[in-house]
Structures are given as C-alpha cells and as structure tokens.
Specification:
By secondary structure, the protein is α+β, with helices and mostly antiparallel strands. It contains 17 helices and 13 strands. Among the domains are: about 160 residues, no CATH class; about 70 residues, no CATH class. Helices cover about 35% and strands about 15% of the residues.
Amino acid sequence: MGEISFETLPLCFEFDCAFDEQVQNRRTAAQYMGTLESLVWLNRFVGETPGDSEIGGSSRQVPHACWSRVLPTPSPSPTLELWSKDMAARLGVQRGNTEVLGGGVPIKGMDSYAQRYGGHQFGTWAGQLGDGRAITLGEVECQDGVVELQLKGAGKTPYSRFADGKAVLRSSIREFLCSEAMHHLGVPTTRALSLVATGEPIMRDMMYDGNRAYEQGAIVCRVAPSFIRFGSFQIHSSTGDVETLKTLVEHTIRTHFPFHSHGNDAGLIAWLCQIAEDTALMVAQWMRVGFVHGVMNTDNMSIHGLTIDYGPYGWLEDYNPGWTPNTTDSSTRRYRYGQQPQIAAWNIARLLEAMVPLMADAEQLHGVLSSFTTCFDQHHNQMWSDKLGLTEFRSDDEDLVRNLNSLLQEVETDMTIFFRLLCSLQSPDAEALTSAFYDETTIPKQAWNEWLEAWWSRVDGQPVREAMLQANPKYVLRNWMAQLAIDAAEKGDFTVCESLHELLQNPYDEQPEHEEQWFQKRPEWARHRVGCSMLSCSS
C-alpha cells in the first residue's frame, strides 16, 4: 500500500430552504399516478453524510462532500414503455407515475441528489467523477429490505462536466433488459423498475468518430440497496479528506453492513473482506454465463458486489477469452472476458489503498486480497463442477477444464449453445454438439471425442444434469438480440423488448416456442455491426 498524505478538512455544511421551495413550487401543479407517493421515503445518505452547500446541476468541483442536491429535469413528453412487474411487486407499487419516473416533480418525501465519487478509469486515476446522468430519488422499504431508487438520464448534475446528463433509448433499453436478465440468471445485479421515453431528441456521437446524430431520449429507474462504489471512498482519500472518508465508512457499515463494526482495524478488515468476497462471487457468476462487463473502472464497482452501470457490455458469442465489446478498450483489451477476475482484484487493491488512513496497522489490508483470491477460486471451482455436472471438484479436474478451454478456442464455438447441448449429451460423441460450432467443417472431432471420453469417464456416464441445467442457461441477452429490440423500439414498436423481457425471466427453461428465434448463434449480419460486436462507453 502506498503512503498517502492527509490533512484535516471541514466536514459539514449548512443548508437553506431553497431546495425545498423548488420542489414545492413544482409540486403544486403535478398530478400523480400509481402508488409511489404512498411509500415511506428515507433519506439516510443525505442525512448522515456531508453534502454540497450549493444546489443545482451546474458543473463544478465539490470538495468535502458525498453528494449534491439536484432536481431531475422533466421530460417534454414522457411515455412509460417498459415496466418490471417483478421489481414493482417487490416495491409494492403499481404501473404508473410516468411523470416522476420521467424526471418530473419529486414526490413528497423524496430528497433527490447526485452522488460524488472518483475512480480509476482504464487503470488511470481520473479524479472527481460522480453521477453525471444519474439522480437518486431516495430510499424505500420493500420486501427485500431498504432499496434506493435512481433515475438514469434525468438531466444535468454538478458531475456532468460537459455532458447533458441525458440518456438515449438504445442505452436505456440495454440497461433495462440486461439488469433484469442478469437477476433472473442468478447474477448479483442492480435492478430496473421502468423505462420512460422522454419525447426529446438527444445529440450523440455513438462511436466517438465525429458522426453526431440525434437519438431518442429515455430514462431508466434503477434499484439497488445503494449505489455506493469503490470510487465513493477513493475520492475522499485521494484529496486527504479523512473526516469525510471516515463519516462515509461509518454510514456505510452502519446502514448496509450492520453485522460489521467500524471501531477498529478488525472490524474494518472484516467489512472489507465481505466486499471482496461478494465481488468474487459476482465475477465468478459473470464467468459462468459468459458476461463481459466492458468497463470495470473502480467507479463502476459496487460495494454490494452487484453488477452496476451497464454500458459496453456483451456476452461471448464464440468462446474467446480475449474478447471485449468496448471499442474504447480495443488496443489494450484491459477489460477482456478472461481478465475480469484479475481486474476485480486490482480494483479491490485500490479500495484498500483508500482505507489506509483509517487503519492503525495498514499491513492487515493485504489479507483482504487473499480473501478475494481464496473466495474466487472456490466459486470458480464450483462453477466448473456445476457446468460439467461433477459431484465435486477435485484437483485433477483442473486438467479437464484446461483442456476444455483450449478446445473451445480452436475453432469458433458458441459458448452458450455448447454448454447447453452438453447438458443433454447421452454419449461421448461430438456429433451431438455440432450445432454449437460456426463452421462444422472445421471441427477437430477426434480431439473433441477424446475430451468427451475423459469427461464421460470422470462422471461415470452420469453427469449431475440438474446442476448442469441450472449452471448453463439456454437464453442470455446477446447483443444482437438487444439490437433487434432497439431497432424496433426506435420505430415505436416495443413488442420485441417486451418479448425478450419475458423470455429472459426464465433463462434456464426450454421455452420451445422461442427456441427457433432466440436459441441461435450470432447471425452474420451482427458480426461487425455497431451495437452488436462494437460498442462504446456511450452504449
């Protein structure tokens, strides 16, 4: 851990009534739908951590603060297009509240704000970042506990820098569908409640190549226990603001990790180990289903071990551990599929560095990284045990897995289809797997039959098929599938979105009525299409 210099800085600010007056003035003419207004709204983050003394969304540096109060920007013509019945049931709300979910007047009890944080982006410290296009409405109690509701794409905040704080339809559809799909896959994730089309044209340069064009605007309401990130702590540590760092840590542990303590090194280490272990589980689940996050910056790492900030993500089509969907990362492939566990460990190390000023003995922090490694290895071994139908993972199974990984890369092989077909294999014969290969004429059948014989012998001809079927999904949100939904939605047709949303709620079921359409290898038209094989951070 490197040494960091710190100095004592002011902690708290006084607030006037200007913000409440803004809300009240805009509320008088508002009409509400649904039951969001009947929920009991909590505002623990703004009540227990220091905030910005200035109100509003003008771009600025905000020292010594964890958040800034800001009102969402109302949509000119909001329409509620996508709705998660499952998430709504957990919240206890009915479909509606289009104005509020579209950036309109906050409901009584909400105290909307944007969070301040920093982060390492592609390995380089970027300083203050923060919620540039996300505004938290507040917290509510639901059947899963207290959760935070946040609008993504609802307008400028102090952290928007030169951007407009808005989101476009294509990226909003990708976030809504993917966060809900990941939940039903069993991958730890933030959730989505709604997608509102704003009726507003938004100028974007999709691939950062100078080809700017107007796109349709949209806002997603996303849900999580909190949106606190690794970078939420890094920003205070980097500027030497130990008091704010300490206050945020105490709030976080007291509010979100009540079984841990913050009064001494042992308590902090136990808390950090839980973050590391939760992160290890999340990444192991990414690897299980072939998910590539695409932009694992420290500001995109949740302290809850949740997949957060769906941007240039993707699923492996062919089994290529070196693949990343993010064109911004094309030269170094830092965030490629096969390196995600190592990047997670690197990010945890940066979080630990941020905790150095709170520790009496900072050397103890090294044990947290060991906890991550041990936990990830356990989950990774269990993953392979389940995917291959083993009753347990033995040390000599490492050769079986290593040989499988090599074979999967010899010719273009669809990861999802391959493992799903393996679940129902009745004999060690590669012929039954041919539909998983993009070019059946190039299959090294002898090598495959040798591996299948070794696997078949290992499981005594009786793989644990139930475990295999729950570890190897039949349906995942491939980028080409999401693109078909986006293409239709941009023409006003959200039925493809709705169909995919329904399909992906049961990703391990056969669903024969959908098999011909969605249980398919990547179509040739998607091989090089923007939005399918190529995505940017604006995606």
